[in-house]
Q: What sequence folds into this?
């Protein structure tokens, strides 16, 4: 949501500049308050039907895109859960708010999978396999591969999934994939009993509805996707329904080394294959992909190796980490040319504290007690943490004197080096 809001701010400034307004009256990005993916877009209807022109260019998160597709279909994915949402309707909440509340309670994220589901699986199946590995296989391959949405069963069958061991370079052999598929079946049974769902259920339901009903919403001419590496193939394939400009209507930007979404196993070669099988092939089958007797071909991929926002010291450290990823996980990361910077700088400083020492209090405690604030921490600086639990701990210490974000929340935003 924060990245999306930042992009919207830049678009607003560009539109003002286009009308001759050169004043620097950019909207203020209150990053302390932008915390919710769906609440941030309440002014945009949950439907692509007759969307007012004032909302274009439409700048939304992928989750908002899913909600709008769902609202465009005659049958909503959430209709099956009407009983669970009925109490919210009775309390006077709108459908949008009721659905949002339901998602918070019933969606199986990685955190819920690891804490609520994983301990209940057969121990013989989970032996020597990490919960994160299984979740990634379920979300990205068993339920997230494009084949899983055709013929819209929502999953690969066991044989097709196990055969991936031969088709895709992976550390998972046939025996391990068999066990993972057994875990998947247990997971689906538990999830059904609990009346819960994961994002792949939502996505595959949309595929099924759009095939059976057709898409009756507004069409767009161009689709620009940033951080595409955080999406599965079935999620990307939904874009074909809203844009028919196959030749030049899609632009995808991302970096597999920056994949932060749990359960995602992404490679750019997979998205190229997806375009040939899901976009070009289906379009050409209806004779819309043929232009003067010539087939439409995908453009080349471009590597943007010039970094304009990070100094060389940080880039060298990042490249050393990437070298390890290339060596130990060659099939998981697209190998790119090393990034180069325009500004020289020192390598980042690594601070190590004693076991009984709180590094945050050591660094900021004295400054706060002497000056009443954290001197030097402004709107362009941030404390980055791994997860929400750590964020709460740090926020309790520093309050609102400094911006504290998780890696997920800060994705795509820029801050000054401190």
A:
């Amino acid at each position: 949501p924060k990245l999306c809001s930042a992009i919207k701010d830049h678009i607003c400034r560009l539109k003002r500049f286009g009308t001759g307004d050169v004043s620097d009256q950019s909207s203020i990005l209150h990053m302390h308050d932008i915390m919710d993916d769906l609440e941030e877009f309440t002014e945009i209807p949950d439907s692509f039907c007759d969307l007012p022109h004032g909302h274009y260019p439409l700048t939304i998160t992928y989750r908002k895109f899913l909600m709008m597709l769902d609202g465009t279909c005659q049958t909503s994915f959430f209709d099956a859960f009407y009983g669970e949402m009925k109490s919210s309707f009775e309390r006077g909440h709108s459908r949008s708010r009721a659905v949002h509340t339901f998602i918070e309670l019933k969606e199986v994220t990685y955190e819920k999978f690891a804490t609520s589901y994983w301990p209940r699986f057969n121990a013989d199946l989970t032996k020597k396999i990490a919960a994160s590995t299984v979740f990634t296989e379920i979300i990205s391959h068993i339920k997230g591969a494009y084949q899983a949405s055709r013929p819209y069963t929502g999953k690969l069958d066991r044989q097709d999934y196990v055969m991936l061991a031969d088709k895709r370079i992976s550390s998972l052999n046939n025996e391990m994939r068999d066990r993972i598929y057994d875990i998947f079946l247990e997971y689906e049974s538990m999830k059904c009993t609990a009346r819960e769902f994961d994002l792949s259920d939502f996505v595959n339901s949309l595929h099924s509805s759009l095939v059976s009903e057709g898409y009756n919403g507004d069409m767009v001419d161009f689709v620009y996707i940033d951080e595409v590496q955080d999406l599965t193939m079935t999620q990307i394939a939904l874009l074909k329904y809203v844009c028919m400009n196959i030749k030049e209507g899609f632009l995808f930007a991302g970096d597999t080394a920056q994949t932060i979404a749990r359960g995602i196993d992404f490679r750019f070669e997979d998205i190229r294959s997806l375009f040939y099988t899901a976009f070009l092939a289906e379009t050409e089958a209806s004779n819309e992909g043929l232009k003067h007797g010539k087939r439409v071909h995908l453009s080349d991929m471009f590597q943007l190796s010039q970094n304009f926002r990070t100094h060389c010291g940080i880039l060298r450290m990042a490249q050393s980490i990437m070298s390890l990823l290339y060596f130990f996980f060659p099939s998981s990361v697209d190998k790119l040319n090393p990034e180069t910077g325009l500004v020289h700088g020192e390598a980042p400083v690594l601070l190590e504290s004693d076991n009984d020492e709180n590094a945050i209090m050591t660094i900021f405690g004295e400054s706060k007690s002497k000056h009443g604030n954290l001197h030097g921490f402004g709107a362009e600086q941030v404390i980055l943490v791994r997860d929400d639990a750590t964020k709460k701990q740090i926020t309790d210490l520093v309050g609102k004197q400094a911006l504290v974000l998780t890696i997920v929340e800060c994705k795509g935003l820029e801050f000054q080096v401190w």
